[in-house]
## 1
Amino acid sequence: MPASTAYSAQRCIDALDTAASPGNSPLNTVMTIANTLESGREAWVIRGQSRSRRVGNWPTWFARNNGEKPLLYLHSATSSAQLCALSDQIAQRGILCNDIENQPSPWPKGAHPSLPLWLATHPRCTPYDPASGDEARAIVLAGLRTLYVDGQPGFYYLALHDQDASTTLDSQDRADAHKGMYPIQRGQVADVRLLGAGRALEEVMLAARLLAQDWNITAQVWSCPSYTRLAREAAAAERWNRLHPLAPTRSCHLRECLAGNTAPVIAVTGYPQAIVDQLRAHVDTRFIALGAGSVQATAPSRYWVVVSALRALAEQGRIDALDVTKAMARYPLG
């Protein structure tokens, strides 16, 4: 990585650190970040909807400049083919931010089913689904540092929605959000653990409230901005341990977060269930993955999260199985 690129990235980080955080939706937060970076002239800020900065004009526009700068690309790709073409245009470098979730679509989260699978399997892409503006801000800052200061290869992808969220992150939360997951409340021991990403996190938090109010069951809630990053790190650690039986065992963020507790884990995404299924092999307790199409066409509602949690507890013998039937009759599951 050229020293000039690292210098530009650090200037971007410094500018964002001193700028006021809007603290609202991921989309509005990234738009504010884009405005800050654009005014500083230390980064390329490409707006896919701008006539002068269309994807097709990108190679010519960038070729007029000799050195690489941090890249923030705002776009609305709906399919894996579009995103593949876009990633090729930018030489698979930069931070791609997609607001497709906010547009009408017959597909979950506005994306064709091929898109999240492409994100999860592309080795140079690190995909994120932030639930709040603070998460999006933390991920962009970490991406600037990782890609352009540390010089690691690849590109980041952020799915952006425009629903405000009041989550406030401390320094540990920000670091853990970049790693893939962090607890909404630290130090809490609970009967069940609920994981949520993006807009689905709100339903997960409401499900935790229902479990407490209606069933006297405590739930620990985790925000998981990147199920894919968690799964990749866990698989890499597992492979290392398999190939180096005499070396010290390597752990991973997912196992460290879920260690020391046998409470079942319910993981929820607005994407198809396959995105959450990536974690299954690396969770050492009862694990239920829920996504679009798992129990209903859209992302699972809070009621399905409650029923799934009760079912997992019943299978462990911690509650009466009759409670699952009662919950299915009590809540609107359609």
Note: The chain has a mean pLDDT of 91.
## 2
Amino acid sequence: MARAPQERAVRTRATILRAAAQIFDEYGFSGSSVSKIIKLAGTTQGAMYFHFKSKEDLAKAVIDEQASDLDLPEQPAGLHQLVRTTLYLADELRENVLLRAGVTLAVEQGQLGLRDFGPYEMWAGQFRAELEAARRAGELLDDVVVEEFAQVLVAAYTGSQIMSHLRTGRADLPGRIGRLWWFLLPGIAPAPVAAELRAYVREYGKQPA
């Protein structure tokens, strides 16, 4: 009998979290309120504070769980999978409100009084695993330092999505990520691998052959 209330609590928490993501995405952290989140979630103040202590606590949860709805690869497979994953993330940032709100809040976390590098380390770890698989498969040049490039890729991706958000509301983000890879690939991959992947991203980056 205890299982049903527990499952209900899990569903309620998930509903509140996604409502919070939608409100944060629409109004920003400063323009959001607990009352707006409760109204959208269709729940009570008691339920809200049972799961989350404050608006700041909710925002931190959205940051931490930004990737929970994503269909990410279970196992690293190398450079091809890394490129596909980053393009998938670009599409998801246009459609997935939990990811979008989590990424935005991570960038603007000073408003929450946070200095949490964890979200960036999470993505760097995801990218690093693919790069390590790429190294084992001979898809990287010898002088590529996997740890350093993973950090560079996260930084470049973060900057690209911020610029895309400001310019087009992220409508052009897949194209920007395609162009990012167009310029990065010759510096990290052997010529045949870089050429194959450049052909793949050309439709996103709109680069000439």
Note: The radius of gyration is 19 Å.
## 3
Amino acid sequence: MTGEPYPRRVLDLLAAAGDRTVFEHGARGTSGTGLLGLVRRLAAGLRAAGIGPGSGVAAVVGVNAEAFAAILACHVVGARVVGVRPGLTDRQLRQVMGLHVDAVVTDAATEPPHAPRTLTVAELLTAPEEEGPLRLSGRPHDVARLICTSGSTGDPKACAQTYAALGAAWTARPEAWPPAIRELAPRLRRYLVFGSLSSQVMLEYGVLSIAAGGTMVVADQPAFPRALTEHRASASVITVPRLRKLVAAQRTAPVDLSGLRALVVSGSPLEASAHREALDVLGPVVFHGYGQSETGTISMATPWDTPGSVGFPPVDVVARGPDGEPVPSGVDGELYVRTQGQATGYWADPEETARVFVDGWVRTRDLGRFDADGRLHLVGRTRDVVIVNANLYYTGPIERLLATHPDVAEAHVVGVPDEDTGEAVHAFVVPSAGRTPDVASLRALVGEHLGQACVPARIAVIDEVPLAPSGKPDKRLLVAAHSAGRR
């Protein structure tokens, strides 16, 4: 491995690609050499603007070659980069801009709200190009990237990842790919990208695609399955709600997806029955990924792994009981994870850092168990609980049980205040295609298997679950809907 800092390995991939197209946007193709040239020019522009080691830069970018090059250029000059996802609320934008941001780099036509200073990609490209080899200024222990969590369980937190950690990650190093990634990578020949390259997942699978000899293909309108066929995509990232819609569409009005090789399910757990159905309908293309902003990728199930599992973790993962001791296989425990590329903590939040980053491990707050073969299964989150009559009940088992009913495509459970029991279980269910859930039978199912305390006091049938900007189901919006009396 080279001793130069991140993003040297990514730049080497672009140089090796040469004249091969690595980024395709409509009729425009950009080669590895072309992208490398953009990085050089943008890095010169950033340095001319006074951006360097220790500078905080917010990246407000879409999906195009310049956006990809701009993020790499920020790392070339050694800046601390925070990606700004589309769809953030005004409060969340203020929070991001408060992360010691010195400037915003954007390819947008309008200035982002609350920006202390705006540097447009077009302006940066007008700076004189520096002579000689591209100089990398990142220092190993400096923070290279702040990755904002989804905020699905509260306000987003900024995970601080150093240049050393970014360089240690396996994405741009084929010799370090774990088995599941070696299975996935060749399938990323035409990797569909959309939304924003500020997304950690979208960007890193893009780098993986280039490392595997593939091309990042832009979808301006990412409606599935049309975007997959229109762009002849071989692979893409997909959330659980989108996967469910794609499977339903293929059942009712199938299109030719014979060129599809991989859908990487990301953002939330995929229940076993939905996993099996997706494999049955779409074929052996479903990869079920598990990771966190704090750790990066933790594990991934290939199409050949047990449905409902996230495969065999290639990193250190321990399931621990309430006493902090490891639990045996088959027993649920809180997952503690250790990876080479993990964050060092939360930016400017020592209290939360101390709670989550413990003795070199990251406390995921996720519940999981290992089966007898060593595959990891996710079963819920430690904070997704309902306290009924002073007794704590996890929502994950209730959701999974409801989702086994043939009338239910997906289920989401929340706890809401109750005058008699302190809190009560409330469930929101999305019906299976052509089915009408029978509330009484759903309540009976829960009571029979989990006991009366877990029986939902109310079950609301909804067309679809509201999503956070990250694409994850947003339970806070469900609670708000309940409070407002909406179905």
Note: Residues 263 and 340 are 25 Å apart (CA to CA).
## 4
Amino acid sequence: MDAMEQSIFVHDEPKSSSSKRLQDKVAVITGGARGIGAATAKVFAGDGAHVVIADILDDLGTELANSIGGLYIHCDVAKEADVESAVKLALAWKGKLDIMFNNAGIGGFGGSITAMDMEQLKQLLSINLHGMVHGVKHAARAMIGGHIKGSIICTTSSAAIMGGLAAHAYSLSKAAVIGLVRTTACELGAHRIRVNCISPHGVPSEMLVAAYRHLMGNADLSIEEISKIIGERGSLLHGRAGRVEDIANAALFLASEEAGFITGHNLVVDGGYTSATTNLSLMYN
């Protein structure tokens, strides 16, 4: 083995399994006070990251931040200045930003396209789309300025890639995020900044639970009951619904160097729902 082969071999040698994947990385998570964001904050912190939780749920966010040794900041992602402040807090705290998880979002309103309320649409887009643009913009500025080979992640939805899963307004807002991720990955790749997104399906977060209760006209449905419904109807893994931890672990992968050659990608976490039908499986059971 010559010197070059030896250097390549040593460079590619796997790290110890005991090492933390996000050791001393600095992350900002919008919508981090509960649901997918809170689960991700816990997973990131457990793997060595310093986490800034940005949300409008001040009590929940502060309590969670204190429990993981992080910081909390009030942040309405529809306001660019709020998102910029969250990024600046990370810079003031640790001097850098390695990871931006643009996770904050709201559910859509229903109804026919023929009766679309454009003011309601503008409000939804101000959070679900403009909020994502704010996050990518200010994270990119911080990472480029600090010469950080960072990771920017956005939460989208299975409704962005498959029609009929959600209301028109919500679906179009999430589809636009995939476009945002792909185009910004092209620009930011020159700075070794990776931009990816995650499309969850059927994860009974607080937002989805509220939507199911409204859809089914039953405010007393428990999370367990909703998970059972999702597991039976919305997954190839019969009886297995998604969990917020599934999305948190996907975000951990995309944030880490294990995903160092992945950018411009939409990671769909859906139990196979959007890829295939469960009908054929009935022939074998």
Note: The chain has two domains: 22-202+244-274, 204-241.
